[in-house]
Amino acid sequence: MFVPDILTAPLRRTDDRTSDYPLLDDGQVQVGIWECAAGTAGDPGGDYDETMYMVAGRLSVAHPEGVYDVAPGTLWATPRHWGSEWQVHQTVRKLYVIDQRPGVPGVAAHLPNAHTAPLGAPAPRPVVLAGDPHEATATLWAHNRLETGTWECTPGEFPFRRDGYDEVFCVLSGHATIQIDGTDGPGQSFDLRPGSVLLTPAGLTGRWLVHETIRKAYTIVHR
Description:
Layout: E1 2-3, E2 12-13, E3 18-25, E4 29-36, E5 39-43, E6 49-63, E7 66-70, E8 75-78, E9 84-99, E10 109-111, E11 123-124, E12 130-131, E13 134-143, E14 146-153, E15 156-161, E16 165-182, E17 185-192, E18 197-200, E19 205-222
């Protein structure tokens, strides 16, 4: 599932304050884009883990450990049964992953700005088709079977495969093309620019062509 620009994705109204654009719902894991208008709401915390990347608006999230200030660029994750009180100051929009599969309680994580967050030392891609791409990753949260973080890669071309996991990501900066392998040659290709969202399922193979250093906020769903 590909969304060229998360900010202009057409959402469907779910109630008087919220709208949604589902990308995946297999009965256990839900992925989508969600929007909520200004106001206050209590969240008692359901029996699921959730990762979120915010792309618009502003809110304050009061929780037992303190208050999160959430703005565009914030990447955060909340474990199951994590209660909070939301004060939405300006209409917010986010990319979310909800995992309802069995798991154990955990600790929330909050990254104020994924655009500027420091990453690990760049390392060369292990298999390269062209150029000299180097990548760096910073994992924010890895709990139960979800993982979320920030990844960056310099220009070059290299293969990829999703062995045993789905991944959804939002491009923060840069420019790249993903070419999907088809049964008899090249399949679909996706032009990735800031705001692009791509959901890649387990088993998918293809290649990255990074034209300008690209950074993404990602969530991996281990199957």
